[in-house]
Amino acid sequence: MRENLGWIKMFSVIKDKITTGFSVFWESVKSYIKNDNSSAAASLAYYSLFALIPLLLLLFFALSFFITSSKAIMQRITILISQFIPYYSDTILNEVYTLARHKGIWGVVSIGVLLWASMPLMGTLRTAFYNIFKVEERPPFLKTKLLDIVVILLTLSFLVAVSFQMWCLKNFLFLVTARFFIILHPIALLLP
Fold it and tell me: Which of 45, 89, 129, 185 lies 20 to 30 A from 143 at CA?
């Protein structure tokens, strides 16, 4: 009899967890439809694609101070671009080399235009967060544009920092594994 009570309690707990999970899922679907989140997702995807090119150009501008000083970086960029975009790699590489060599061409106006072209993505993100958190009062136009510029610059800085960290981690792991195999190599020669 006690065994049956244990099973009944276990099934009751499982039923409660499934019911709770299903109700959370159902409320999420209803909220998604009510708030028209499919439209927000589509606009985020569109503006992300639209802002990709200006953001990449800004990233190349920021990295151009380091690119021309290192042949290893230029070789790595050549490999990456030829892997990701094989058909247009020559054209893109010529543009990257030209931009890296002629840093003086980048004026304040062109950087401003690239920042301005990236701003719709930040505006769409801001609108999505306002809708998520039900913010009624919107800040003034100039304040939002300045905030967008700051967020773009912080995002680019974050991407540069992450890529540098990944490069450092890769080199560290290479050195550690190389030393490990140097230590094990004589031992491996002794094994049958």
Answer: 45
| Percentage, residues of the chain above pLDDT 90 | 4
**CA gap 136, 138 in Å, rounded:** 6
Report field, pTM of the whole predicted structure over 0.70 = no
Q: What is the DSSP string of 17-38?
A: HHHHHHHHHHHHHHHHHHTTHH
Instruction: Supply the pLDDT for residue 130.
Output: 87
Rounded CA-CA distance 65/183 in Å is 39
Read off the amino acid at residue 64.
S
* Positive or negative: CA dihedral 119, 122, 127, 128: positive
- Helices within the chain (DSSP H only): 2-34, 37-67, 71-84, 89-101, 108-132, 141-190
Of 158, 152, 154, 160, whose CA–CA distance to 125 is shortest?
A: 152
- Distance from the first to the final alpha carbon of the chain: 63
Pick from 33, 37, 30, 43: nearest CA to 131: 37
The tokens describing 146, both together, are 């300045």
Distance CA 63, CA 160 (A): 8
